[in-house]
Amino acid sequence: MQALFPILAVLIAGIGVALQPPTNAALAKASGSVWLAALISFAVGTAALLVIWLADRTPLSAARGAPWWAWLGGFYGAAFVAAIAFATPRLGLAVTLTAAVASQLVTAMLIDRFGLLGLPQQPITPARLIGVVLVILGVIVVRRG
Description:
The protein has helices at 4-31, 34-56, 73-91, 93-114, 126-144. By secondary structure, the chain is an all-alpha fold. It has 2 domains: 1-88, no CATH class; 92-145, no CATH class. The longest helix is centred in the first third of the chain and has 28 residues, at 4-31. Keywords: Membrane, Transmembrane, Transmembrane helix. It holds the Pfam family DMT_YdcZ. InterPro entries: EmrE-like, YdcZ. One of its GO terms (cellular component) is plasma membrane.
């Protein structure tokens, strides 16, 4: 039961990940700029997080001890949002998201394998490798379908 909440949170977040590209693509189309669409997306997200953070009351100084690379998350997020908003109307949502998931899984396996970014090492097992290969094959199948 303890693992149920994180799984539900990720499943709900996954719905948002599927809704975000067409939402941002529509904004990019209307505005004529992927960059403006990404900026608006982040501004709205920042406003929402600001309200939640103000209610949470964690002091800003709490982030002081974070390693230098921990500050790059917003950069990755901005690049992802812009790239997905750009690719979705050109490739379609299913191809865009399966390609994104495939690249995320390959990267995640490498991060796990070497215990990068403060995470514990996890081996690349045959089952995990098969799973990632199946996702990559899924990208090809969805793209050709």
